[in-house]
Amino acid sequence: MSALRHKYGAIRDERDGRKFASRAEVRYYDMLKMRLASGEVVMFLPQVAFPLPGGTKYVCDFMEFHADGTVHVVDVKGMETPAFKAKKKQVEALYPVTIEVVKA
Question: Where exactly are the structural domains of the chain?
Fold first, then answer.
């Protein structure tokens, strides 16, 4: 697959037939698979959408279900844009979640 550049410099990539917006997301995905194999993570879902008012939505990179019963909403970011910050605040106000930002 040829690498396409994102406007913020991210390079789109692919792993296991899944497409990712950045190589940082691929690295995090690889780490999640290791955590899954170790039993720390029971399962995870990529690209989970949270509907927002006004017909918009926020899509997290991963939703992780841990062995201790906790659920983590994770977004892998190289740069936190103003739009992301606004949607993050909105999601956290509307849903009982805290979005964890993993820096690339």
Answer: 13-103
- Which listed CATH number (2.170.270.10, 3.40.1350.10, 3.40.50.300, 3.30.420.10) goes with 13-103? 3.40.1350.10
Catalogue the long-range contacts made by 76-79 (C-beta closer than 8 Å, 24 or more residues apart): 76/22, 76/24, 76/25, 76/28, 76/102, 76/104, 77/24, 77/101, 77/102, 77/103, 77/104, 78/8, 78/9, 78/10, 78/22, 78/24, 78/103, 78/104, 79/8
- pTM of the entire structure? 0.82
Which residue type is seen at 5? R
Structure tokens at 48: 């989970």
The pLDDT tens digits for 67-100 are 999 999 999 998 899 999 999 999 999 999 999 9
User: The tokens of 38 are what?
Assistant: 């170790």
